[in-house]
Each structure stands twice: as structure tokens, then as C-alpha cells.
Amino acid sequence: MPEFWIISAPGDKTCSQTWEKLNAATKPNNLSVNYKFHIPDLKVGTLDTLVGLTDDLAKIDTYVEGILKKLVSYMEEILEDQKDMLHENLLVNNVDIQTYMTKFQWDMAKYPSRQPLPNIQEIINKQVQQIETDLKQKASAYNSLKTNLANLERKQTGSLLLRSLADLVKKEHFVLDSEYLATLLVVIPNPLTKDWERLYQTLTEYVVPKSSTKLFEDNEHSLYNVTLFKKDVDTFKKAAREKKFIVRDFTYNEEQMAAGKNHHAKLKLDKRNQLTILFRWLKINFSECFVAYIHVKALRVFVESVLRYGLPVNFQAMLLQPQKNSKKLREVLNKMYSHLDSSLAAGSIDDIPGGLTSFGVEEYYPYVYFKINIDMSDELRKSS
Q1: What does 301-352 look like in DSSP terms, one character per residue?
Q2: In the chain, what is the greatest distance between 2 CA atoms, to the nearest angstrom?
Q3: Would I find Ion transport among this entry's keywords (predicted)?
Q4: What is the mean pLDDT of residues 340-356?
Q5: For residues 149 and 151, what is the distance between their CA atoms, to the nearest angstrom?
Q6: In this prediction, what percent of the chain has a pLDDT beyond 90?
Q7: Residue 38 confidence (pLDDT) above 90
Q8: Sign for the pseudo-dihedral over CA of 290, 296, 299, 301
Q9: Most buried in the list 125, 150, 214, 342, measured by CB within 10 Å?
């Protein structure tokens, strides 16, 4: 299943006994695979601080998860038809998500445990805000380049009425360097090609006989050249327009055509290079953001456990990976820990203790519980 549960329960005589009881209850029917979730001795602070943090951490939790999904969404977009490679690129500290989760260790360097809890929360918040800011800037630059390239490619592959004609014509299609003659390119709707071939020589007085050849055809239009006297160009354009023959403005210039091709090639190369750089950045910052995400979860477990179970701090945090029957696992946990809040009809939103809904609590059980979704992408969600 693409999720983990973090729960905590008060230490019995020792926290080891709490851990052993969980395993004894869940292993016989293979309800979950369990791991100890290591949270260091954090500074408790005042009750008011803890209550305030409940709300703040819930908001940061949602915020960080949203940024994670944006990072993954961009990775999916870049991979295009190679989305099956997404899983192998979602690494956290150079290991896969499951390994990081099951071997979680608090990062003392990033989040010093002796700092007051609000300070740690602020460190995480600023870190993720910076990732979001950088993502917006990088995404904007990449999207601008992608749009420019798409517009250029549309001009090279779209309708003959709009697309670039440089790739469709050759030097021999034109009369060049003539004092008196000019070659025009004319786009003809396909149903009218026979009319063009019959009429073009008579549209004006000074058209060179048999000078028109079909150069290209798509589903809607055909491209022809035609040679005439320069002094007759404006008259010819007007006569052609009346017959629904469209003269395209085009000057055969090899240097400009080569520059256009070079510009296209440069944009494609720039896009490929930016994709490589952006994808590497996304991988690094997915890891950074996921680390922050799990530390937020750890903070929430700590704060909620102290508020629920009181002082001195004495609880065991545990990571559960539900197997096939999560409903049965929930029933076993509720039964195990019902003594912690016997008045509660566990899990019912209507019975959540007063005030907790304002802190974003949508599920409430006798024990501390938080769910961690690891289905950050559309592809992962479909596979689940």
C-alpha cells in the first residue's frame, strides 16, 4: 500500500514493552510491518506553545506536501514517455522513500534538537518556502523556452498559410538576381488547385508561361511557385486574392534561412540542457523537501503525544506499513489502545473532541496517529 502510519502510545513500564505489544498484536495476521520511529528528546516548552504548534504544524504539513507534489509533477512532465523511470528518481538522501522512512534518523545538522520547537518549525518553513520560490523561477524560465520552441515548431509544421516555408523550397525554385523577374510563392486550397493550374498564366499580363510548379502539399493546401515581371507583382497579388489564391511574403535568402535553422537547433539544444539541469535540481530538492516533510510529521507526533499523554515525556513512536487489510489493522489498534480514551467512538469526525477540528484534525483515535502518503504522483496513484 502506498502509505505509512506513524502512531505513538504511552510507554508502559518501558517503551520497549509498548513496542513489543504492538508487534504481538499485528504480526500474527500480517497486518502491518512495523519499525521504531526515532524522535530525539526535543524541548517541550510551555503548554501554550504546544497548543499553538498543533495548528501551525498542521498547516506546514499540508504546505510541504503540496510542494512535494509540484516537484514530482514537473519530474513527470520532463520524463514524458519515460514515466516508468519516475520511481527510481524519487530518492531521499540517495535511498528510496521506503528505506528512508523505515530507517529514519533525525537530522541534527539541519534541525538542531536543542532549539525550541517553534524555531525548528520556522527553519523548515523557510527552507521549503525557498524551494518553492526557486521552483517558480526555474519553471518560468523553462516554460518560456518551451513556449518559444513550440511556437517555432508550429511555424514549421502548421498550416501553409502560417508556417515557415524555408524548409519546403530550394534555390532552383526561384529566379534570383534578375533585374526584371520575381518568383512568388502561392498557397492554394486543395479544391482549387485545378483552377490555379488553368488560370495562373492569365491572372495578369506579365506572367511567365509554364513557370508554376507544385512544391508541397498537405491535407488542406498546396504550395506553388510562379514567376512574373516585378512591375506586375501588386496587380498579380490582387487578382490572385480575388480567386482565393494566397500569395505568401517570402524572400529567398540563404543566410537568413540558415540563421533560422540555427536558431531552431539552438532552442532545441537549450531546452535539452535546461531539462537536464532542471531535472537534477528537482531530484535534489525533492529529497530536501521530503526530509523536511517527515520532520514535520515527527514534530507533530511529538507535540501531540506530549499534549495527549502528559509529562514527563514517555511515549513510543512507531512506523507502520499496513499490509492488505488496513481495516482489520485499525480495529486491532483501536482495541489495544481503547483504554487511552474509552469515551471515544474512534475515528468518527462527529466525535472528535471539541476544538481539534480547528487544528485540521479529520481523524481521531485513542492513540496519536498520522498518515504519510507516498503516492506523490499521478502514475503512482494509478498503480495503487
Answers
A1: HHHHHHHHH-SS--EEEEEEEE-S-HHHHHHHHHHHHGGGSTT--TT-GGGS
A2: 109
A3: yes
A4: 53
A5: 5
A6: 66
A7: yes
A8: negative
A9: 125
